Amino acid sequence: MAANIQVIVDVLNGPPFNKDLSLVLFDEKSPFELLTTLNEVIAHLKKEPPVELRDEPQEETGARMIEFIRLLKFPNLPTSIGQQDQFTLQLLQGNRNAIYPVLHYMLSKLPQLEKRAYLAKYLVNIEVPQQYMLNPDVSNVYNQYKRHRQEFAETHKTVDRLRQNSLAPGELRKEIVQLEEEKHQLIDKIETLKRKTSEMRGFDNLLKVTSALRHEQEVSAKLEEQKMEQGISYEASEARYNQTQQKVAAMRQMVREGSADPGRLLDTLRNEQQQIETMCTAQLPREIGEQHEKYAQLQHSLMEPVKTKAELMDVQSRARRLRDEVDHLRRNVEQAQSKRGDDPLVVFRQQAALIAKKREQAEAKVASAEKAKESLANKLTGMQNQVQAMSGGQRMSNSDFKKYAVNIREKATKYKKYKAKLAIIHSESVVLNRTEAILKSRCDNLEDVMANIERGKGVEGYTSTQNTLEQISNATAALNSTKGKTLEEISKIVTDINHAVTDRKKRLQPLINQLKGLRPTYKEKESEYLEAKSVFENMAAGLESERVKLERDCESYQVDCQREESRYHMLNCMTQIADANMERVRLEDQFSRGNGELLPQFRSFQDLYNSKIQQQQSLSQELRKHQNALRQGAPQDTQQRSIFENLRRLLEQKAMTIRGDDAPVSLLGADSALAKGIDATFDAYGGTNIMTLNEQGP
């Protein structure tokens, strides 16, 4: 119960509740305050403002809370109507035994229940009486409602799945761009390979063989994976089989020894159950957590964009460069140290070695301490099981535990008295054993003599029986000694616990008294704070609304001002343009009357514009004449170009014939036919360039 209350207080102290509670304050809440807290938690789950409990009738409050608790599938909700009414009455009365479990269930699973409450608004079925379903309109609407509800469920599942698996938009864009680049690269590689292998002989057969080989390799890899899985399953089955065989052998051994009583079987089963519970509560969750972390890391790695080959080579080159720099610096340091003849890092290295050695020793001590801790924890668990078995398998109350502790002290006192008597008896037995040993040493055939005496007295085997009884009594004494030590330890633990509880109460008593004295002051301050807060909120709301209104008016006025300013600038520019045009018209009228002139060459604007028009017309006529000339001379120029091209080819062919080479030549290059064995001379006659080819001597 204390752990559950701690969970409730921790969640209420965090967002979105922010209650700032402690265990003491929460425990001192009145029933109505507890009911108000439950109402606030329900309102948070329903995403609605909390209902004022003072204004709502109790019947409606109880029905509303019970319906919502049933909607959240509270496990401890009674099933019968009478028990539900009793549970509702306890909730309305603020009974802690009813409210605490509900609060713990809601607050411990707050995210899951928020989602369940959200879905319940749309997925809870609305029951319609059967007589109303005979109406066709009602039936159609109800069928449409069920169809929409199914669509909502499927859409919500799809959204959840996308939220869990999808990437961010930016990462998706990067990945799409990268995949497109890889796609184009692969297409280019495939086209290149097709061009290279299009003329290769036997490529189709080779492709078929390699495809079959790749298929067989994939099948082999799958078979290898299946083999590994089957091997793991086989090892697990073999381990289970060996465990079962061991259990069967142990049971058979117990049956042969005659110790297969129900109590021992139950103890064995309890130990196995404890081992399984330990595995389920400690080992398996830890392993599952580790696997989840690995999965999250792998998922994050998969979500990251794939590194291209260029990026990989860049990273490798940087790593090599950094390694080279580190090696270079290390060599420089070693050379400097060798030149100076000393190493200032020797001291630090020695200290580092000592610290590493101390750390290893500390780790060894920690490991041994953890092993000792585990062994002590196992012993404590065994003792607790023994105490629980001795007390009937139920947890004892404080009074029962105190009685049990008094009983243990009494037994411990009796045990000490009996132990003192036993010590006296043991000292006497030592003397008697010594005497017996002396007598046995004096008589070599003591056993035969004792056997004859026993046979004569009719008690044959008395000595062996007495030895057996002595061994049993020694074992019993050792067991009693162990029990005595255990009882002493338990008594000491109980005493320490009682002392600790008493000391804690003494230390907390002044604080509790001080807290009780400050509680009325706190309530007064809280009432004053709430009143001031309400006044502040009202004033803040009024000022906020007034501010919003003023801002809206200012924005509208600013828009009007900007519009009028833009209109003003536009009209001003139009006015300036009109003034310039009017000034130009006035000047033109003045120039036309003979009062002045625009330019020395032009008397008015009209003369200037007419002159420019004539210039453009004359330029257009000249361009048309040049176009006609080019159009008329184009066939002759084309024919002359073809003639010179044929001449160039003929001369190259002649040069190639003289050289005796079939390779194509070029007259303009340094390695051409003219540069190897042919001498070319150029002469100018009447504006015409004439080339003469002369064969050079050897």
Helix share of residues?
over 70%
Characterize the largest beta sheet: strand count, sense, and whether it forms a barrel.
2 strands, antiparallel
Shape: extended
Order of helices and strands: HHHHHHHHHHHHHHHHHEE
Number of strands: 2
Beta strand %: under 5%
Strand order of the largest sheet: 1-2
Determine the number of helices (DSSP H or I, runs of at least 4 residues): 17
Our Rg estimate from Cα atoms comes to: 53 Å
Q: How far is the N terminus from the C terminus?
A: 119 Å
What structural class do helix, strand and pairing data support? mainly alpha
What are the segments in which pLDDT stays under 50 over at least 5 consecutive residues? 663-678
In oligomeric terms, what are we looking at?
A: single chain
Mean pLDDT across every amino acid position: 79
Task: Describe the structure using short key phrases.
698 residues, Actin-binding Protein, T-fimbrin, domain 1, two-stranded antiparallel ribbon, 17 helices, single chain, mainly alpha
